[in-house]
């Protein structure tokens, strides 16, 4: 019996000793402030700790390979499932798989970070791994495998660089594109659509007379169609160049705007040569589809378009994602500071000093 009194309150104070593990002290205030209630609370704690109720304690490896993977299949996109699988199999499982779930504490998380930092992994990569670990431990708590999720602190991640085409490079890129890809890369550069949104774009979503694209779908890597990322449905105005490209591209192969010769949807890997070959020919370096999306946002920022508008056109969930383009609008802070040179409004004149 390890019921004690501390500051006029009844507590339990016991050590849990399990084979192959360090003794662990459990010291908690009894929710029922009587000796009988504290004794019952102690029994409840020990039954849970020693699994006397018959529930077998699970390792991280067992939980991740079963429950976490099942959860990912039900809730994540194929691309996200692939990223989580690589993080688990290559990094997290070799480190955590033999640990019991409730033995994973902030200390073990920090040890993992130290090991991966010493292995020269980028902070962003480590942060991605820890995001998967946090999701696994949160899920374990929801499934009542553990009581508390340990603190999982990601390392500071510096602002990630991104590539985009200059105005001259964008014009050269479009001019150098082959007939098969010319309309698609033009629309990508002038609307900022993701590659999945381009692959899933249908003629019914294109209003050439009004000059608007309705972004309602996104194609996944396994050829399925779903809502746009983060369910951000949006309308994107078409520039004259994009409208002309779509008019010239009009076909009768099927409902998809950009498709194979038989009207079937492009697979994602089939689209990669379209920009890779063109970029080498036009600008002397290799870029991919996402660079065309960055180009659209960058050009808008360089033309002085507000970040809020760019966020809406890009379909970003948070303005934080859009702020990476802020440095491309150098005139905005300069014009703001110029306001300080203006005379003060009469109603805003400084109050006279009051003598004491």
CATH H-level superfamily of the largest domain: Intergrase catalytic core
What's the order of the H and E elements? EEEHHHHHHHHEEEEEHHHHHH
Query: How many β-strands, per DSSP?
Result: 8
Low-confidence stretches: none
CATH architecture of the largest domain, please?
A: Orthogonal Bundle
Strand order of the largest sheet: 1-2-3
Characterization of this structure:
The protein is mainly alpha-helical and 356 residues long. The chain folds into three domains: 3-49, no CATH class; 60-142, DNA polymerase, domain 1 (Orthogonal Bundle); 167-330, hpI Integrase, Chain A (Orthogonal Bundle). The chain has helices spanning 35-49, 60-75, 78-96, 106-118, 123-142, 167-176, 182-191, 195-200, 240-249, 268-283, 289-302, 307-314, 319-322, 331-338; strands at 3-6, 9-16, 24-29, 206-207, 212-215, 218-219, 225-226, 234-237. It has a three-stranded antiparallel sheet, with helices on one face. α2 packs antiparallel against α3 (78-96) and α6 (167-176) crosses α10. It is elongated, with a radius of gyration of 29 Å. The model has no long low-confidence stretch (mean pLDDT 88).
Task: State the main characteristics.
3-stranded antiparallel sheet, single chain, hpI Integrase, Chain A, DNA polymerase, domain 1, 3 domains, 356 residues, mainly alpha
SSE inventory with pairings:
Layout: E1 3-6, E2 9-16, E3 24-29, H1 35-49, H2 60-75, H3 78-96, H4 106-118, H5 123-142, H6 167-176, H7 182-191, H8 195-200, E4 206-207, E5 212-215, E6 218-219, E7 225-226, E8 234-237, H9 240-249, H10 268-283, H11 289-302, H12 307-314, H13 319-322, H14 331-338
Antiparallel strand pairs: 1-2, 2-3, 4-5, 5-8, 6-7
Helix pairs in contact: 2-3, 2-5, 3-5, 6-7, 6-10, 7-9, 7-11
């Amino acid at each position: 019996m390890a019921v004690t009194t501390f500051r006029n309150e009844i507590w339990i104070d016991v050590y849990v000793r399990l084979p192959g593990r360090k003794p662990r002290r459990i010291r908690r205030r009894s929710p029922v402030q009587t000796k009988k209630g504290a004794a019952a609370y102690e029994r409840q704690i020990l039954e849970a700790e020693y699994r006397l109720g018959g529930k077998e304690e699970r390792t991280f490896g067992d939980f991740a390979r079963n429950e976490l993977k099942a959860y990912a299949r039900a809730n994540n996109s194929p691309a996200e499932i692939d990223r989580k699988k690589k993080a688990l199999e290559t990094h997290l499982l070799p480190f955590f798989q033999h640990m019991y779930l409730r033995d994973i504490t902030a200390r073990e998380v920090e040890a993992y970070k130290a090991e991966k930092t010493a292995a020269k992994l980028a902070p962003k990569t480590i942060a991605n791994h820890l995001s998967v670990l946090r999701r696994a431990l949160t899920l374990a708590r929801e499934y009542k495998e553990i009581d508390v999720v340990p603190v999982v602190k990601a390392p500071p991640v510096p602002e990630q660089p991104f590539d985009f085409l200059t105005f001259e490079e964008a014009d050269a890129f479009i001019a150098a594109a082959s007939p098969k890809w010319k309309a698609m890369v033009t629309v990508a550069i002038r609307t900022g659509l993701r590659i999945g949104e381009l692959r899933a774009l249908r003629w019914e979503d294109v209003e050439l007379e009004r000059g608007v694209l309705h972004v309602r779908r996104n194609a996944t890597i396994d050829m399925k169609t779903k809502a746009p990322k983060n369910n951000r449905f949006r309308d994107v105005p078409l520039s004259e160049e994009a409208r002309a490209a779509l008019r010239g591209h009009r076909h009768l192969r099927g409902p998809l705007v950009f498709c194979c010769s038989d009207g079937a949807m492009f697979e994602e890997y089939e689209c990669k040569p379209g920009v890779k070959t063109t970029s080498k020919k036009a600008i002397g370096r290799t870029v991919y589809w996402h660079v065309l999306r960055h180009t659209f946002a960058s050009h808008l920022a360089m033309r002085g378009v507000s970040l809020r508008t760019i966020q809406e056109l890009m379909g970003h969930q948070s303005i934080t994602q859009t702020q990476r383009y802020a440095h491309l609008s150098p005139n905005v802070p300069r014009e703001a500071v110029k306001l300080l040179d203006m005379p003060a409004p009469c109603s805003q004149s400084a109050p006279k000093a009051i003598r004491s």
